[in-house]
C-alpha cells in the first residue's frame, strides 16, 4: 500500500497528461473533482502516496480541498502537489501555508514532475517505515516496563534508557525531571489536593515527557547546531508524536498514569502567554503537571551540559527564565522556583557547588 498516485483535476486532458507522467512508476487513480477525491480518502486513504491537485476547479477549488484534507488529518500523511497555470504568488503562499509539498506549473514537464514527486514520496515512505519500526520498538519497550506491578524507580531507569538513548543523553535528565517534578508537588502549593499516590504518578509520568523524540529523524535530533525553521517545525512534532505513541499502547492507556503522561508529553512546551506549542494553550488551560514539567525541563536544559552547548551557571539560568528568554511561565510557579532554587540546585547539581 501507499504506492498509488491520486490525480485530481476537472479537465480530462490534464488528467490524461498526469496519468501518462506517473503510470510507468506508480498505479494511478484519477478523479474529476475534489469531492470525489475526498470521498476516496474517507473510504480508505492507505493506498495513496501522492496527490497532484489542480487549483482551479468548478465545484471545489484545490485550496478548499486542502482545508478539508487537513481537517481530516491527512496533512502529514499524504504529500500534495498543487498543479496550476497561474503565476499568482498569493495562491502559492496560501497553498504552502496549507501544507502542499510543491507548486507545479502548467504545462508540466513530465520527467521533472515525476522526479520531484518521486523524491518526496520516497521520503514519506522512508518516514512511514521508520515510524512503524519506532512505534513497534517503543511498544515493546514500554510494554515490557509496564509489566512491573509496582511503578517504582525501576520504571524510571527503564524509560530513561528508552527515551534518551537516541538523543545522546546520559539518562540523568529524566531522573532530575522526576525529582524536580516531585519536589514541586510536595514542597509547593502546586501539589495541593494531591495525595501521595497521585504525586508519584505525576512524577513518574514526567519521565515520559520527551518520549516522542523517538520519532524524530536522527539528522535533526542529533544536530549540533541551531535548527532551521523547517527543522524546528519537525522537532516540535515530538509532543504530538509522544502523546500519540502513549495513546496507541493499550497497556499504558488502561493505567492511571496514562492521563498524566499523555497530557505532559503533549503540553510540556505550552507557555503561559499562549506562544508555546502544539496547541497554543494559555494560562490555566495548561494543566499543573504540564506547567511544572515545562519549567523544570527548561531549567535543567540550561544548567546541564548538552551535546550542542555548555552548561550555564545556576544564577544565569534563573535570570534567563525570569527574563522570558525561554518563554513565559506561570508567575506563581516562577516564584516557587526562585524561592527554592538554591535548595534544588544543591540537591540535584552538587558538582556545580
Automatic annotation (TrEMBL):
Kinase as UniProt keyword: no
Segments forming domain HD-GYP: 148-353
Phosphoprotein found in the keyword field: yes
Domain annotation Response regulatory: ranges: 4-121
PROSITE patterns membership: HD_GYP (PS51832), RESPONSE_REGULATORY (PS50110)
4-aspartylphosphate sites (modified residues): 54
Highest taxon, organism lineage: Bacteria
GO MF annotation terms: phosphoric diester hydrolase activity
Record InterPro entries: CheY-like_superfamily, Cyclic_di-GMP/3'3'-cGAMP_PDE, HD/PDEase_dom, HD_GYP_dom, Sig_transdc_resp-reg_receiver
Keywords of this entry: Phosphoprotein
GO biological process, one term: phosphorelay signal transduction system
CDD domains found in the cross-reference section: HDc (cd00077)
Protein name (record): Two-component system response regulator
Organism expressing this protein natively: Sutterella megalosphaeroides
